[in-house]
Amino acid sequence: MKNKRWGIGLIMFGERQAEEPSPPPEPLKEPKIDTTETTRALGVENYENPFYKDQPSSILSSLGSVLVVIGTALVIFAAARNTITWHAQKFWGASGDFWQAQWDKFLDVAGEDPTYLWVFGSTAITFGVYWLFGGIYTFLDVTNMPKVIRRYKIQPGTNEPVDRTKLMKVIWCVLLNQIAVGIPSSYLMYYSMKWRGFPGIRELPTFHWVLYELAIHILVEEAAFYYSHRFLHSKHIYKYIHKQHHEWTAPIAVTAIYCHPVEHIFSNLVPPFLGVFIMGSHVATAWLWFTLAILSTLNAHSGYHLPFFPSPEAHDFHHLKFNNCFGVLGVLDRIHGTDAAFRQTRAYLRHIMMLSFIPPRVAIPDTQLTKMKYWKMQHESKQQ
């Protein structure tokens, strides 16, 4: 009976406690982040990036991370070297003669004039690849078909469909760069290669040597493009040259070389060519490299993060905020700390090759806060 009275007393006490109104929760306040000092240290424009959080910059720390990755890759490669070499030699022995035979047939028709191959052959290859694959992306942007592709948009709601007046302006500028700037530049590059010396036209290089040269081309382009691109963002020249390219805060594929002619020469043409010049590459190797470089920049500007494609999130973020992600691979951005703001975003988590058909924004969704910041960034970009 005593226990029962205690039980009734506790229930009544609980009811009285429940009747007392609880104080309303204080609203969460987002801390205001000052990015002035960090962006000044980076030497780039401060566009008041809402994602930015100051981090202690440590080049040695970043360089250490890069060295760990490279060192691990070298250890794995060294362990598997004999197997890889054996398979590569077997592959080249089976297919090398085939490709040499096809190259001989091509030269029998086109001729072996190095001027013709280096100038007009390179122009035809780059022009064809750019508009074949760029045209496919443009079809997606103009028609919004198939609808399933829109699930892979990096900036949903942009260019759906693309403004046709702006698109025609881009196409005209790109054609002008490819013809009026590209062909004379091809002549200069040919005479540079003639002065430097290049291998004979008829014999193709070995499979191993092609892979080695491509690795050098990638590294040289990363350095040349990063620093030339960073220079174009200098406050003294940005508005005169590079600002044209950044008219598109949500880029589409064919805007890859929508730019001022000076930028096209020093940021689009010279960086890929430098590796070819340094290595004295065969013209066929140069064509292969130029093709890969064009496919890479089309993908980086496409606005779509498609499955099984390299992630274009970093360069898309660069177009949105201008002051981060200047490189191609991201290695120099990490070393110099010019990806600090990008690494604070959900886009950075999505910056991987998607090995499934799940859209990146579904696999790694935005939080409510990042959605609000994203739309704020888009609004600010349109006002600039």
UniProtKB/TrEMBL annotation:
<keyword id="KW-0812">Transmembrane</keyword>
<dbReference type="GO" id="GO:0008610">
    <property type="term" value="P:lipid biosynthetic process"/>
</dbReference>
<keyword id="KW-1133">Transmembrane helix</keyword>
<protein>
    <recommendedName>
        <fullName>Fatty acid hydroxylase domain-containing protein</fullName>
    </recommendedName>
</protein>
<dbReference type="InterPro" id="IPR050307">
    <property type="entry name" value="Sterol_Desaturase_Related"/>
</dbReference>
<dbReference type="GO" id="GO:0005506">
    <property type="term" value="F:iron ion binding"/>
</dbReference>
<feature type="transmembrane region" description="Helical">
    <location>
        <begin position="273"/>
        <end position="295"/>
    </location>
</feature>
<feature type="transmembrane region" description="Helical">
    <location>
        <begin position="170"/>
        <end position="189"/>
    </location>
</feature>
<feature type="transmembrane region" description="Helical">
    <location>
        <begin position="59"/>
        <end position="80"/>
    </location>
</feature>
<dbReference type="GO" id="GO:0016491">
    <property type="term" value="F:oxidoreductase activity"/>
</dbReference>
<feature type="transmembrane region" description="Helical">
    <location>
        <begin position="116"/>
        <end position="140"/>
    </location>
</feature>
<dbReference type="InterPro" id="IPR006694">
    <property type="entry name" value="Fatty_acid_hydroxylase"/>
</dbReference>
<feature type="domain" description="Fatty acid hydroxylase">
    <location>
        <begin position="215"/>
        <end position="338"/>
    </location>
</feature>
<dbReference type="GO" id="GO:0016020">
    <property type="term" value="C:membrane"/>
</dbReference>
<dbReference type="Pfam" id="PF04116">
    <property type="entry name" value="FA_hydroxylase"/>
</dbReference>
<keyword id="KW-0472">Membrane</keyword>
